[in-house]
Design goal:
It comes from Wickerhamomyces anomalus (strain ATCC 58044 / CBS 1984 / NCYC 433 / NRRL Y-366-8) (Yeast). This protein is of the alpha/beta class. It has one domain: Oxidized Rhodanese, domain 1, CATH 3.40.250.10. The protein is built from five helices and five strands; from the N terminus they run H-E-H-E-E-H-E-H-E-H. It has a five-stranded parallel β-sheet with strand order 1-5-4-2-3. The radius of gyration is 14 Å and the shape is globular.
Length: 138
């Protein structure tokens, strides 16, 4: 079943996310699922939801309350390298959508779900010097 979820999740190039941020799109949610390594900085528009609790329905509901499903909704997950926690959280989110939202009855309502390619590490390598694209944690 995880292969089914994984096939619905695509990789997103950092350059594409940068372009979307520049366009000031209001239909994207960038979800940072790092745990203790969150202290190393963040993408300014991201929200922090640690991966450890991400499978809980209440967390998923909070995410959907802040970023509701819509015709053009995009959810982008990342961790430090987007190899483990980011993909795992994206799969949990997709599973939740398919089991507990209107998406279960109409797959056309599924939003686009992405993993930020290379995670925050790659993002920082490319955009770390730009304060509009990378900020420290206070």
């Amino acid at each position: 079943m995880d292969q089914l979820y994984s096939s619905c999740i695509k990789r997103l190039a950092p350059e594409t996310l940068r372009n979307w941020i520049a366009e000031e799109r209001d239909d994207i949610a960038v979800i940072d699922v790092r745990d203790s390594d969150y202290k190393y900085g963040k993408i300014p528009i991201s929200i922090h939801i640690p991966s450890k609790g991400f499978g809980e329905d209440s967390i998923q509901n909070q995410l959907l309350s802040k970023y509701p499903l819509g015709d053009t909704s995009v959810y982008i997950f990342h961790c430090m390298r987007s190899q483990q926690r980011g993909p795992s959280s994206a799969r949990k989110f997709l599973r939740y959508l398919l089991l507990k939202t209107e998406c279960k009855d109409d797959l056309h309502k599924l939003p686009k779900v992405y993993i930020l390619d290379g995670g925050l590490k790659k993002w920082n390598q490319v955009y770390g010097a730009d304060p509009e694209l990378m900020v420290g944690i206070e």
